[in-house]
Amino acid sequence: MRAIWKGAVAFGLVNVPVKLYAATGEHEVPLHQVHKKDGGRIRYRKVCSIEDEPVEYSEIAKGYETDDGQLVVLTDEDLEQLPLATEREIEVIEFVPGDQVDPILLAKTYYLEPDRTAAKPYALLREALTSTDRMAVVKVALRQRESMAVLRVRDDVICLQTLLWPDEVREADFPILDQDVTVKPQELAMASSLVESLAGDFDPSGFEDRYRAALEQVIEAKVSSGRTQAVPQAEEVGEGGQPAGEVVDLLAALQRSVEKARGGGSAASSGKDPDDAPADEKPATKAPARKSRSKAAGTDDDAEQKPARKPASTRSRGKKADDEKPAEDKAADEKPARTGRKRAS
């Protein structure tokens, strides 16, 4: 066991250094939620309702909403300033008979282990509780919250059992119980006889959690029949919330785009593969750019930055004009156009 608290029991002028251990634990079969489709773990993230973005733990504070709808934000610094005299001390307030503590108030139980130098005062407190048949009512602060508790002895170990505060216990308000009900003597006798027939000494080890046993059998049957799968591993998340693999693919795609733009920008702008063009037409892609520089000296910079765009637009305008001519005019224009491109080369 691992100690969850360290302090001292203080009663009168006697201090007993102790460590606190959880005396109980859940025996549930450890299950977690998964995606039925692929077995991925279901995770819950803390998301701001206004920004709709995940929030880091360091940015989370506590809030209290007033009756008129105002919000009071309490930071860790605010809570640390609260007085907790019992933060490292179990303060004994009084000793009371054990039968006066209503079981409904009992909460979680802890074991107290004495420090190496506190064996004698620990034994003294234990024997005093046993001989007087009383419990010690104490106050203690656990996890920054002060609680009422009692000290009692179980198997020579002093136990600390936390209590609910009185306002945490609800009152039973069942109007039907206020009705007058008549119980016949014969009915009471038969009920009492049934109670006596089932009477016995309480032994919790004689009881079994049948639901847990059945669940374990279902799990074992699936394992033995091979109906299992490997635990899926979640992808590493890169910057921006995208999987790291997608970032690498994006960089590779951008690199290929840059290389393609550098090597064949003019062909890309025209939508044609340069290898598919006839041999006598390949050099013509640069000729219109030289003509444009000679005709318009004021646009030299634009012509050098975009040598591929003007030929594309010139060809598109020429093609549109050809479409508007009769068929015989198109045939007459084709040969001089090819001759002109050869001279330009």
UniProtKB/TrEMBL annotation:
Keywords associated with the record: DNA damage, DNA recombination, DNA repair, DNA-binding
Coiled-coil boundaries: none
Biased composition (Basic and acidic residues): 272-284, 319-337
Name this polypeptide is given: Non-homologous end joining protein Ku
Domain Ku span(s) in chain numbering: 52-180
Function: With LigD forms a non-homologous end joining (NHEJ) DNA repair enzyme, which repairs dsDNA breaks with reduced fidelity. Binds linear dsDNA with 5'- and 3'- overhangs but not closed circular dsDNA nor ssDNA. Recruits and stimulates the ligase activity of LigD.
SMART domains: Ku78
Family: Belongs to the prokaryotic Ku family.
Annotated segments matching region Disordered: 259-345
Pfam families reported in the protein's UniProt record: Ku
GO terms of molecular function: double-stranded DNA binding
BP term (GO), one: DNA recombination
InterPro entries assigned: DNA_bd_Ku70/Ku80, Prok_Ku, SPOC-like_C_dom_sf
Keyword Protease listed: no
Gene behind this protein: ku
Cited SUPFAM superfamilies: SPOC domain-like (SSF100939)
Subunit structure: Homodimer. Interacts with LigD.
Keyword Zinc: no
